[in-house]
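Run Diaminohydroxyphosphoribosylamino-pyrimidine deaminase through structure prediction, thanks.
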Amino acid sequence: MAMDTILQKLGDEIVDVDEETFDVFSQSVPSRDLGMVDAKAEALELTIAGRDFEITQSPGVLQSSRGGGTTGAAVWQTSVRLAEWLAWSENPLFKYALLGARSTALELGAGISGVVPLVLRPRIKQCFATDQSYVLKALNDNVSANSKDSKAHGKKRAKPGLQSTISTFALDWENDNVTSVLTANGVELGSDLLLAVDCIYNYALIEPLVQTCTDICKMRSQKDGDGGIEAAPTICVIAQQLRQPDVFELWLQCFHRRFRVWRLPDDLLSDGLKENSGFVVHFGILRGH
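Sure, done. The structure for Diaminohydroxyphosphoribosylamino-pyrimidine deaminase is below.
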């Protein structure tokens, strides 16, 4: 089975949170700022996996004192690097057939850029990008603009009929009933892939984030729409820039209680996410699934 194959490739499951935290932060972490690509630019030109993207940012919103946070108004290095990994020809999720043309993905805390759903779009059936409501207009604008104008270098562009759809909707981890919001937006059976990209940066968000991941993955315990067999468990991929060891450790303690967890080794990662890059990617499967 595909899941058995990738679990073998992942190697040892994480059993000791303290040991994992020590190992991760023993890496040579490059000195860099908070991790935004360019916080002051109103527009960014990015090339990801041979495609050009022009992303509009909101520096004014980022610098405002808006309640509930403003980090979604900028493009973050982790999103760019994970997008490169998702588009990578050797990506293990596609190579070992956990994901394919019929798969769905859901991103938490997508922010304004849309680069993750945009690179996934040619590879899967549907991608859902979620964040707080203040992000959605800019996110939709960037998805729309780059669906029309992004250029492929040396590759044939996919025919429109083969392109998956990208849907966006608001999801507030702290205040929403996750199951109700997803059901209202056509995700009543959860998704094959759940992504959280650089969502772990303060203590207050850890429990709501992990609970949201748990609620979404539990939706896969339902029968499929035809009353047939249960769907395969949701794959949860958490990518983050290494910043504060204590925040990371608290997240992993909380996540590990509910999920079986592996750290992706270098041979399953593209260059921008490998050891000593300052970034780390974990793979989780809800316990009991």
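Residues 149-162 have pLDDT under 50 and may be disordered.
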